[in-house]
């Protein structure tokens, strides 16, 4: 799929070992680096690339997965087919991660890959979920209102949707789950 090719190309442009493709391990024990708030992680010797991955990619993924699209997907009716794959604002975790690395001078992308990343960013900012098909692409509008709350004990400021935390312009809200 094209998105996999793009993510691989973006990762290849990262100037350090990209934890996105090969989780960085420390020392001879190959233990994962501790996940700490950024200042404490840097003070304890966690490489900047790993800190950025935890603080941008992982934090956004957790916020978007557990606080946004998993609850909404669970609220979809049980009968009938559910799309296997969808895209949209929940893609912000990898889009934001690779954009942050590029802006910090820690990644250099080929012009066409940079442009492609920009298109994904525009999509994530402009619409809700979207499902590409062979001949039709279904695009959902962005919600009218979204309320979030902090995840208790989160290290990187992750957020989640409280019950009834999203409302669409037609009045639909996910049922309480």
In short:
With 177 residues, the protein is mainly α. The chain has 5 helices and 8 strands. The chain is 41% helix and 10% strand.
**Coarse morphology:** globular
Annotation field: number of helices: 5
Major beta sheet, specifics? Answer: 2 strands, antiparallel
Judged by helices, strands and strand pairing, the structural class is mainly alpha
Low-confidence stretches: none
Quaternary organization: single chain
Instruction: Kindly estimate the percentage of residues that lie in beta strands according to DSSP.
Output: 5-15%
Question: What's the SSE blueprint?
Answer:
Elements (H helix, E strand, L loop, with lengths): L1 H11 L12 E2 L4 E2 L5 H6 L4 H28 L16 H12 L7 H16 L3 E3 L4 E3 L5 E2 L2 E2 L8 E2 L5 E2 L10
Antiparallel strand pairs: 1-2, 3-4, 5-8, 6-7
Helix pairs in contact: 3-4, 4-5
